[in-house]
Amino acid sequence: MENPLFFKISELFINLTNYSTIKNSMKNINIQDLSRKIPIFPLTGAVLFPGTQLPLNIFEPRYVQMIDDALSSPGRLLGMIQPASQSQDSGNKSLKKVGCVGRISSFNEAEDNRYLITLSGVVRFEVDEELDVTTPYRQVLANYDNYKVDTETPKSDGIDRSKLLALVKRYLEHRKILADWEIIKQTSTEQLINYSGILVPFTPEEKQLLLEAKTLVTRGHALEALYQSYIFDLSGEKSDQLH
Questions:
Q1: The whole model's pTM is what?
Q2: Contact 110, 116 (CB under 8 A)
Q3: Which of 45, 101, 122, 193 has a 20 to 30 Å separation from 23 between CA atoms?
């Protein structure tokens, strides 16, 4: 079965050169100007954070139409959100409480009626209600009120960067993942945390935990605990599992 996510774990922390550009553009965003009615792409295991980029392979006809419609709209907005259950039952339509709205910042049309898009995270949202629509894709009424902080510069003073880097290094070594350590060391703490949430193969619940963390500091502490848990598991040592 084709996967809508087309990044590889080996790309971890490598192609993040547009990060500061995205964050700077977000400073000019007024949440009040964002449409509250947004199309959504429910996908288990996929999360988007403000200021990050998520590459997606869009091939289902209903979502191809969703991209067509989004590209013709002023904001090119699309909400990423996880289903509330991992069940594949077609009748399962419940959603997680929190998602992230992104802007389609680049796209390519493939010959087989597919889109390869890049979604740039703007701001997190809570679902006020799912709308009754005639489109084949789903739409919700998004509430951004609790996430105005997403458009501000986050504070990372409470995060032990040295400890976090050491955990990342141990995790990559245990997983035998090749990565350019010099690039990783040069990435900002915010990058390190948010792209870990996107690219590291944590469980859907663990990814959601990171997404819903109120601040970068609380997300960083949760991430440290996850890395530590996985390192223990991979090394065969005893641990208090979080997954």
A1: 0.86
A2: yes
A3: 45
**Which two structure tokens, joined as six digits, stand for 221?**
């502490």
Q: CB within 8 A of 198, min separation 6: which ones?
A: 47, 48, 49, 52, 54
Angle, nearest 10°, between helix axes 189-199 and 204-212? 150
For residues 17 and 84, membership in a common domain is answered with yes
Per the structure block, which two tokens stand in for 153?
């510069």
How many whole angstroms from its chain centre is CA 162? 24
Q: Which domain holds residue 117?
A: 9-150
Q: Give a yes or no: residue 217 inside a domain.
A: yes
Q: What residues contact residue 65 under an 8 Å CB cut-off, 6+ apart?
A: 135, 136, 137
> How many Cβ atoms are within 10 Å of 105's Cβ, its own excluded?
16
- CATH code, domain carrying 99: 2.30.130.40
Rounded to the nearest 10 degrees, the angle between the axes of helix 216-235 and helix 189-199 is 60
